[in-house]
Specification:
This protein has one domain (3-287): M1 Pyruvate Kinase, Domain 3 (Beta Barrel). It has helices spanning 115-125, 144-147, 167-179, 245-251; strands at residues 12-21, 30-32, 34-38, 41-42, 48-51, 70-73, 77-81, 88-91, 98-103, 106-112, 130-134, 140-141, 153-154, 162-166, 194-197, 210-214, 217-228, 255-256, 262-273, 278-280, 284-287. The protein is mainly beta and 292 residues long. The protein starts with 11 loop residues before the first strand and ends in a 5-residue tail after the last strand.
């Protein structure tokens, strides 16, 4: 990397290797060459969510077949595909009843996107479900315990605007899986937004801040909380079948004392600079390591 990339003198220097958004929480991702950064994270990430009749969010934890629901974003519509199902399309600005829904401990407002979408999802996933979009004009904030009091808004993410991972961390895991006789896995299983290249395995765990040089200016993402892992990384995103080898392998080397011994992979980050900038694959990144 050249000295003109603005990252000279940093402990860690690399680049953006891949960018993902997950428009419908816990459904398949969309990989993009570029995406706008907003205060709530990457544009359109976790803007929609599935809820049960009581308004409680549902994810692959309960319904692994959600991995087979594949979204597409058009200029004016969200399109969903799934095996054996007709195409479903809902307008990006479609209106409907506003209802209270729950994601983890937070009660927020969602716009119900109607009976057609509800029937489509319920038929494919085998449970009574509704599709809701995060209602504008409200603020759901990340935990002040981890942000140090900084107000970091989210939509339907688990709790933080951006999830970081790295190619090297996935490669490290795959070497361990191979040594145990298991197949390698893709980074998609970890549902990160920004995947870093050119850095050492798990350097993302130790970054004080991640700086990204964009055409519009400098972006700064501050990693604030290790991402605790549930059974979702055990689910093959191509088949929705679950097997335990990923979680079992992670338990062997990724128990995190910061999270009371839970296994972690990736870092939750907040946006501290650069809202409105366009992130692109290949952009240089850098940061200083934290030693605490």
């Amino acid at each position: 990397m050249s000295e003109t990339d603005g990252m000279s003198g940093m402990d860690v220097r690399g680049h953006i290797a891949r960018l993902f958004i997950h428009p419908v929480k816990s459904c398949a991702p969309i990989e993009l060459p570029q995406v706008r950064l907003e205060a709530t994270g990457l544009s359109m990430d976790r803007a929609w969510m599935l809820v049960d009749p009581d308004g409680m969010f549902v994810t692959q934890r309960e319904l692994p077949r959600m991995a087979l629901v594949r979204p597409e974003l058009l200029a004016e519509a969200l399109r969903l595909r799934a095996p054996g199902m007709p195409l479903l399309q809902v307008g990006l600005t479609a209106q409907g009843p506003v209802r209270e829904v729950q994601v983890w401990k937070d009660r927020v407002l969602g716009i119900d996107l109607g009976d057609t979408a509800a029937r489509w999802l319920s038929d494919f996933l085998g449970r009574s479900l509704r599709l809701v979009r995060f209602a504008a004009g409200q603020r759901r904030l990340s935990s002040f315990k981890w942000t140090g009091g900084v107000e970091a808004p989210n939509e339907f993410s688990d709790g933080y605007p951006v999830l970081l991972s790295s190619e090297a961390s996935v490669s490290d895991l795959n070497q361990r899986l191979a040594a145990a006789g298991h197949a390698s896995v893709g980074v998609e299983r970890f549902r990160a937004n920004v995947v870093l290249g050119g850095i050492e395995a798990f350097d993302e765990d130790r970054l004080e801040a991640l700086h990204i040089r964009t055409d519009e200016g400098l972006v700064t993402l501050r990693p604030v909380k290790p991402c605790s892992r549930c059974p979702i990384p055990d689910i093959d995103p191509q088949t929705a079948c679950s097997s335990p080898e990923v979680g079992d392998t992670l338990r062997g080397f990724r128990r995190d004392p910061r999270m009371d011994g839970a296994i972690t992979f990736g870092m939750n980050a907040i946006v501290t600079e650069g809202e409105g900038c366009l992130l692109r694959v290949g952009q240089p990144v850098g940061g200083m390591l934290r030693f605490d």
